[in-house]
């Protein structure tokens, strides 16, 4: 996305929302509900808690504090999330409704599950986990392709009170090992292999590599047969799901969980150090995703809803699995990729499954936009009623293409801003309540109080630009970093005391619309995947010939941001093609293919202050080919480094 495209978003005219008599939220209702949510948060969230079946109703609502940091919602309530997602719909007579439609990597490879069938599958899976020795509070690592058993495994964990840690199937064995070790997980759920875009992803082999190469011993690895790939099974440790499942009870009761009992850990990148295990708990998360799904997607019974995110990301957790099931929706899960077998795959699937609500990422939209309108026009998208975007800023050009070509300029587009740490949608226009502004996420969701602050923490009023903070807690907020509460406090609550700092920069316009401008920390967003530049740097410096590395993001037409690596070699070493290949391979090995560098820029030196700090601001500008506004370089220990870097950039 180009800088210009991003900055003109504020000037984009508002587009009136379509009127809709059936909507859950009219403009007046939004205004009233939002005001009520701030005037009487406890009253508002007590009411929303009725979306959930509690085995013991909470008498408290919000008991959170940002200083000291202690986040608690509904803390004396008791519930089970799996019961809420599955059993209660069956008990209420809706067992025949479709819960999931799954389509594999190969077009037309389809499997559906009713709520009845899902209940049976989840119970069988939960019984299998119990048989393996999993107990309440145990961490279960789920390293799966996008298959039904991935979602079923999550629900099964929730059913028995185990904490799931889903690791995206695209992560390397190294990255997987780090995530297994960090939460001391003794159980792994995986598949023989996955399929993406016609290519096999060797998941079980990756698990073996992660465990063997790192000397990690786990109690059990449960393997779902999916592709039929030939794999090695370690006697006593590895079990085929289809074999164990036949020996276990067909029913498995729901474990009553305290509202603040952990539900899941999800690793996400920050500006420093290793990925953090963001922890979400049960009650508040349930209320938050149930409420946000209901209003943001304006879901109506019987509709087919499709979120294209993988369950390895928070979007897959909240809006492919938990949010839709809590609302008794039909959720489509897709194993493959948008450009396989061709660029009309998404639209072909929308037509065949009669998708009403479609939610995807800007990177996919930009990639499909490049293919022109023909692949979209070939398909009947008349069932679509609402389309959404998530994961990174969407440039107005892509937004308009999406609305015109996919939405026929007739249906609402929602651009939903949120984070792994927020659990669910925080800022979005509501589909029939708000006018849309291409490039702006829009208005705060109920209960959310965004604040824009300057570098010193002063709150800025009116139309302005600043760092985005949230003033008070909301039910879906992450509670801690697993095993490291200090890091949680340091990362999110120490920059601006008493506020949650998102790490995002943001503009607010005259109408009070929020437009996220991107990360202001050392996190980059590549195709909607969050990555710490420090993680890529750590991988690069593992190479024996590398002395130092500095990684920054740069604008990329399709990915939003690309990965630009400045690399300094040891004295006497010279760069060559082979080394470039080795470094790319090293990053893929340490993190995964999503972190593959786009550019390697070998340089004899990095720009540093006299105290030895790398001046990333300069590196970012140079990567952006913006040499005119490098700012003050006089504090550099050796200002001549900059000229060499510019000359080097021209050569990249
Ligand atoms: C849900 C998710 C979070 C970061 C976030 C921000 C960026 C997400 C966005 C957006 C602009 C949107 N982001 N949605 N930026 N507009 N609609 O993506 O979570 O993977 O944790 O990433 O993504 O920079 O801070 P996560």
From TrEMBL:
<feature type="binding site">
    <location>
        <position position="543"/>
    </location>
    <ligand>
        <name>Mg(2+)</name>
    </ligand>
</feature>
<feature type="binding site">
    <location>
        <position position="541"/>
    </location>
    <ligand>
        <name>Mg(2+)</name>
    </ligand>
</feature>
<dbReference type="Pfam" id="PF00501">
    <property type="entry name" value="AMP-binding"/>
</dbReference>
<feature type="binding site">
    <location>
        <position position="588"/>
    </location>
    <ligand>
        <name>CoA</name>
    </ligand>
</feature>
<dbReference type="InterPro" id="IPR000873">
    <property type="entry name" value="AMP-dep_synth/lig_dom"/>
</dbReference>
<feature type="binding site">
    <location>
        <begin position="391"/>
        <end position="393"/>
    </location>
    <ligand>
        <name>ATP</name>
    </ligand>
</feature>
<dbReference type="GO" id="GO:0003987">
    <property type="term" value="F:acetate-CoA ligase activity"/>
</dbReference>
<dbReference type="InterPro" id="IPR011904">
    <property type="entry name" value="Ac_CoA_lig"/>
</dbReference>
<feature type="binding site">
    <location>
        <begin position="415"/>
        <end position="420"/>
    </location>
    <ligand>
        <name>ATP</name>
    </ligand>
</feature>
<dbReference type="InterPro" id="IPR025110">
    <property type="entry name" value="AMP-bd_C"/>
</dbReference>
<feature type="binding site">
    <location>
        <position position="339"/>
    </location>
    <ligand>
        <name>CoA</name>
    </ligand>
</feature>
<feature type="domain" description="Acetyl-coenzyme A synthetase N-terminal">
    <location>
        <begin position="30"/>
        <end position="85"/>
    </location>
</feature>
<keyword id="KW-0067">ATP-binding</keyword>
<feature type="domain" description="AMP-binding enzyme C-terminal">
    <location>
        <begin position="535"/>
        <end position="613"/>
    </location>
</feature>
<feature type="binding site">
    <location>
        <position position="519"/>
    </location>
    <ligand>
        <name>ATP</name>
    </ligand>
</feature>
<dbReference type="InterPro" id="IPR032387">
    <property type="entry name" value="ACAS_N"/>
</dbReference>
<keyword id="KW-0007">Acetylation</keyword>
<keyword id="KW-0460">Magnesium</keyword>
<feature type="binding site">
    <location>
        <position position="527"/>
    </location>
    <ligand>
        <name>CoA</name>
    </ligand>
</feature>
<dbReference type="GO" id="GO:0005524">
    <property type="term" value="F:ATP binding"/>
</dbReference>
<dbReference type="Pfam" id="PF13193">
    <property type="entry name" value="AMP-binding_C"/>
</dbReference>
<protein>
    <recommendedName>
        <fullName>Acetyl-coenzyme A synthetase</fullName>
        <ecNumber>6.2.1.1</ecNumber>
    </recommendedName>
</protein>
<feature type="binding site">
    <location>
        <begin position="196"/>
        <end position="199"/>
    </location>
    <ligand>
        <name>CoA</name>
    </ligand>
</feature>
<keyword id="KW-0436">Ligase</keyword>
<feature type="binding site">
    <location>
        <position position="315"/>
    </location>
    <ligand>
        <name>CoA</name>
    </ligand>
</feature>
<keyword id="KW-0479">Metal-binding</keyword>
<dbReference type="InterPro" id="IPR020845">
    <property type="entry name" value="AMP-binding_CS"/>
</dbReference>
<dbReference type="GO" id="GO:0016208">
    <property type="term" value="F:AMP binding"/>
</dbReference>
<feature type="modified residue" description="N6-acetyllysine">
    <location>
        <position position="613"/>
    </location>
</feature>
<dbReference type="GO" id="GO:0019427">
    <property type="term" value="P:acetyl-CoA biosynthetic process from acetate"/>
</dbReference>
<feature type="domain" description="AMP-dependent synthetase/ligase">
    <location>
        <begin position="91"/>
        <end position="471"/>
    </location>
</feature>
<comment type="similarity">
    <text>Belongs to the ATP-dependent AMP-binding enzyme family.</text>
</comment>
<feature type="binding site">
    <location>
        <position position="504"/>
    </location>
    <ligand>
        <name>ATP</name>
    </ligand>
</feature>
<feature type="binding site">
    <location>
        <position position="546"/>
    </location>
    <ligand>
        <name>Mg(2+)</name>
    </ligand>
</feature>
<keyword id="KW-0547">Nucleotide-binding</keyword>
<feature type="binding site">
    <location>
        <position position="530"/>
    </location>
    <ligand>
        <name>ATP</name>
    </ligand>
</feature>
<comment type="function">
    <text>Catalyzes the conversion of acetate into acetyl-CoA (AcCoA), an essential intermediate at the junction of anabolic and catabolic pathways. AcsA undergoes a two-step reaction. In the first half reaction, AcsA combines acetate with ATP to form acetyl-adenylate (AcAMP) intermediate. In the second half reaction, it can then transfer the acetyl group from AcAMP to the sulfhydryl group of CoA, forming the product AcCoA.</text>
</comment>
<dbReference type="GO" id="GO:0046872">
    <property type="term" value="F:metal ion binding"/>
</dbReference>
<feature type="region of interest" description="Disordered">
    <location>
        <begin position="1"/>
        <end position="21"/>
    </location>
</feature>
<dbReference type="InterPro" id="IPR045851">
    <property type="entry name" value="AMP-bd_C_sf"/>
</dbReference>
<dbReference type="GO" id="GO:0005829">
    <property type="term" value="C:cytosol"/>
</dbReference>
<dbReference type="Pfam" id="PF16177">
    <property type="entry name" value="ACAS_N"/>
</dbReference>
